[in-house]
Amino acid sequence: MIVRAKAPLRIGLAGGGTDVSPYSDKYGGFILNVTLDMFAYATIQTRDDDKICFSAQDIEQKYTQNIQDKLIVEDELILHKAIYKRVIQDFNGGKPIALDIITFSDAPPGSGLGSSSTMVVAILAAFRELLKLPLGEYDLAHLAYEIEREDCKLSGGKQDQYAATFGGFNFMEFYQDRVLVNPLRIRNDIQNELESQIILYFTGLSRDSGKIIDDQIKASTKTDSDKSLEALHKVKQSAFEMKECLLRNDIEGMSRVLEASWLAKKSTSSSISNSYIEEVASMAIENGAKSLKLSGAGGGGFMMLFVDPVDKQPLIKKLKQTSGQVHNFQFTNFGVKAWTVHNI
């Protein structure tokens, strides 16, 4: 039997970092994000021997073992191992299944587009299809979060799992005991204008978000007068302001909010920017960019730039002279999808 799944990657428009515990537990986190036509893909196919085989084709890693052997969740392909182990334990009575899990992502790890969490959602959705699991959208996203943060002990927030599961434009609320996803119905003309004003640029730097997230966790435990905590509050406020601008079709306003929130975000951790990122940012502003920010935790990955559409192509030409790459994209209005392959 063969099943496949695809889940969309996302860009955070505002509020990023406020979905990380303990900040979200203590103060509540708010994020505005949207999914793109870049995906994480998963195929699960059952085998007729007694082996499990995991393969991540984008990073060229493979792992194989007998199903009778104890599966240790560590080292390479830790997410694949953890998902398999959790699904077998929670949904198959501990009885192992011989199968292949084959994955591929349109974005590299450390891209700032939520690629790791999106991959977890895609694999889980494939298992949901394979085993007909009774998991709704919130269940799937929460399980993906638990596997990454609790089973694998990986640092990070909660937005990526919910963005990949629900898809589209969402205003998300994060509390200690619950997550609320508020889908936004954005008119096509607003989406088209927003797309026309955004450039998505990969800096060429893949980064480990752990240090940045650790800095934000420390900021969450500081007193209210602390500058890094104050900056996180400003980042959260930017999510409300960005949502209002988006709903009013105020793209100029969105650009101004992005500029202010990027300055606030940089105040939460010294690892968010670096000399190369600042050099590219200065060049972009000199060549027509109105505002910009790094997607995700920061430190590298993808940069999102606002630019007047008439200045877009000249700026893209300049960006192509750097060591990074410009990526074409469109917004998507759907979340994770899974299907069974029926042989004709």
From TrEMBL:
Record keywords, A-Z: ATP-binding, Kinase, Nucleotide-binding, Transferase
GO biological process, one term: GDP-L-fucose salvage
Domain GHMP kinase C-terminal: residue ranges: 242-320
Domain GHMP kinase N-terminal positions: 82-168
Cross-referenced InterPro entries: GHMP_Kinase-Related, GHMP_kinase_C_dom, GHMP_kinase_C_sf, GHMP_kinase_N_dom, HddA/FKP, Heptose_7-P_kinase, Ribosomal_Su5_D2-typ_SF
Gene3D superfamilies named among the record's database cross-references: 3.30.230.120
Superkingdom, natural source: Bacteria
Record GO terms (molecular function): ATP binding; fucokinase activity
Claim: Transport is one of the keywords in the record: no
Pfam families xrefs: GHMP_kinases_C (PF08544), GHMP_kinases_N (PF00288)
Sequence similarity: Belongs to the GHMP kinase family.
Protein name: Dehydrogenase
